[in-house]
Here is the input.
Amino acid sequence: MAEDGRLQAAVAAGVLPSEEAFAQLLRSIVVVARAIFGAKGSSVFLFDEDTDELVFAAVASDEEQDLVGRRMPSSQGIAGWVLSSRTPLVLEDVQNDPRFARAFAAGTGYVPKGLMAVPLLYDEEVLGVLQVLDRPERASFSLKEMELLGLFASQAAIALALLRSARRARTELAGDGEAAAVAAIAAAVEGLEGPKREAGLALLDVLARVLA
Amino acid sequence: MSLALHGASENRAADDDLPAWSLPRDAGGAIAIRNPLPARVDREWALAGATGKGVRVCILDSGVEAGHPLVGEVASAVAIALDEDGQARAEPETEGDSCGHGTACAGVVRGLAPDSEIHSVRVLGSGFKGSGDVLVAGLRYAVEQGFDVINMSLSTTKRQLGDVLHELADTAYFRRTLIVASAHNMPVESFPWRFSSVVSVGSHEEVDPLVFYANPDPPVEFFARGVDVDVAWLGGATIRATGNSFATPAISAIAALVLSKHPGLTPFQVKTVLSLIANNVAADGRG
Here is the structure.
């Protein structure tokens, strides 16, 4: 987000739903992705620019493991390739690659036979990677499934973009600068009801005219 | 280089310095096309007996695992890296393939054009940051090396890289280097596959690796085998893979076959040949 968008972001932060709501949205995406493909698992990785890492942002898996928050280098393995190349991949028999198997088992606790991995592209940026693990075995893969995967990825990318905006806005809110003050006012007005809310909005309206 | 406007060189003598973008009166006969295509181009003329021998194919990707049973010898391998000042440099490859993807592409080329030379330029696997600049530097390096074919089973969505990639694609085109680039599997804007100076490739679902189709509705120009392809992967392994990534080296290999049998063809001519022998076009009954 551009520097001059920080005030607006901070104001938005005062009225945005919680980050937890976005996390739930992401989780619903991986749950549905798993269901649609009849897969064993699905996960979303978020790219952390500051650390150059991929972070598990949501996981739907039969394995009862708390993977959310785990990190790995952005250039590692198949997810890393998909991120950097911005290109989806569908692979079967991946356990034939011993290096992949070891790395994946260390990260997730089990080694899938197959996986679909697709970049989460929003505008010209790549925000992360969506993976679907172990579709049921069938004779062949179809380009229709690839298309479906792309549609899911587009939805997940929008959710990730919203999540990132909310995080950035909250960073502003948490600061001590003027943006935090504006955000605090926005949040306070959002919490008002009845005549107090009307008075608060009227006050802001006057303030806006004075400052314009 | 600044471009001379057409006609600006008319006062110059018809000497060796004559720019290629103008032609003196009556000089047409002196610039015969060196490798004209025959009146009839079919698969027999284009491919029969070809092995890719003498053709240098560059895999611009995640590196290539040399010695893999499906890849064999890798003639040269470099990794593109950015130094502290952000300057790109090509270093001798020390890590091999960082993912398996480049090895897969190399294996597809080797399978169809067994005697071609495989060269690896690694542009992925050294971190996400700067990966766009590394991609551009890698393509620039590959063009400078004068490879006959550059396989790019990847693209970038960064618009700011579009212009420089476009310039490099055009430079390659005029230097007789054919860039074969994957169309994106998703409906997004990405580069360089959309440029007309490259050959762009999408997937079809058939199993014959030599079956490919010309697309009457570009920007994707050709469809090749890209679904459930058995490809080389890390550790000498073979896996099954789907994506335009794996259709692209099939076209790279077919182009290498054409070039091994008919050296010196320009990218324009190779693309023309590919169009003429595509299975939905070919007049020899195979279409």
User: Anything to note?
Assistant: Chain A has a mean pLDDT of 80. DSSP finds seven helices and six strands in chain A. Chain A has two domains: 15-173, 175-211. The first strand of chain A starts at residue 41 and ends at 48.
